[in-house]
């Protein structure tokens, strides 16, 4: 009997020692996971620290650093500079419909919003967890993640069909892994992630799995200032038919007047099938930053919005040639639109790209601005290096809007002119040459809060270890006494 108890105590201690590392890894915070996927080292003492020592992850991190150094110099830095100069009145809420997981650009144009609401047809997926992926499969998963972001990093917008194909066979499915990467690279700290759905009246609740409701993810995060903010991403059909009783517009209406960002939206807001979404943005938008795929100029002029064009309007890409706006061309010419040094939307080349800033005069008079413009804080610095050589020119297939959206908008899948979608000629960055401050400057990233699950496990582990040791000691004592009597 005594021998059996000894065996039990030893087995208990051994099992605890064997299980402890895996349990610690699964207790990693969302911020740890986001930084790892983004190619940024997790915080000191993170349960994922060992993953960052892996050679394959270090290669992933190096490739991400190379990409982001160029993206910061060519796109994100200039966008933040433009935003500071021109978006001087900001609202606490920013609406970005037809967005997919593109937190990257909305954060650059509208930094420091209290609430961001993103919406698209792309599925959210589950919580990313590299600890559930076999180590031998991780290099491939990192590669699929990079590939899924390729179009937005090179062209400034997602080619949805490509992203869907890249993630379909991945264990890091859905928009959430990409949101993680963009938030980590933007210098954000993620505090909490939860899945939500909406009642018909727009009331937010824990996700029930109801497919008729708008469902999505809610992310609580902070930037360098430490203030907690909220990002929502909802998977929902924004057509009139898709919005019936799903609660999305009612939820957005409760947030009040906000800023609006639209790009690469397939001209869906030009048609009658999306009139409810268009009307909502016209009614609840204070300022609007968009390319020509957003709300047509005639609706903004009818509402007496103040119009401020920037860049060059050269018309739609060939796939959407029927949506050319002569009035928009006249506006850009009449107001002698200032140039921009970045590109957005389908016309992603800076010398062919444009943005229209529209200000709702009625909204400005009705409610004061409650979010003062803040200095743009660039994301953590990355080491300038030679950019990964891109693939040569090619022809892409543009995503048609799925299901009823595609039918309503009259969009079919066709090949887009290779001039529009070919990969940009990325120049190399010499590490020995001083780079712009926007590339080299670093921001302070708040350390993630200690994981409650990890602390609880550590306490239980110590207690169990002490109990097992006590049992072993008592058994050894009684064995000794018994041997002395003999």
Radius of gyration (CA) equals: 26 Å
Question: Helix/strand/pairing class, anyone?
Answer: alpha/beta
SSE series: HHHEHEHHHHEEEEHEHEHEHEHHHHH
- How would you write the strand order of the largest sheet? 4-3-5-6-2-1-7-8-10-9
Q: Whole-Å distance between the termini?
A: 18 Å
Number of domains: 2
Q: Give helix % range.
A: 40-55%
The biggest sheet, with number of strands, parallel, antiparallel or mixed sense and barrel status, is: 10 strands, mixed
* Number of β-strand runs: 10
Percent of sequence in beta strands: 5-15%
- Unreliably modeled segments: 8-25, 370-458
The number of helical segments is 17
Gross geometry: elongated
Walkthrough of the structure:
The protein has 486 residues and is α/β, with parallel strands linked by helices. The protein folds into two domains: 2-23 and 453-485; 30-440, no CATH class. Helix content is 40%, strand content 13%. It has helices at residues 2-26, 30-37, 55-86, 103-109, 138-148, 150-155, 160-168, 176-185, 248-254, 275-284, 297-302, 326-334, 361-366, 403-409, 418-421, 437-440, 452-485, and strands at residues 93-97, 115-120, 189-198, 204-206, 215-222, 228-235, 258-262, 285-290, 306-311, 354-359. The chain has a ten-stranded mixed beta sheet, with helices on both faces. The two termini are 18 Å apart.
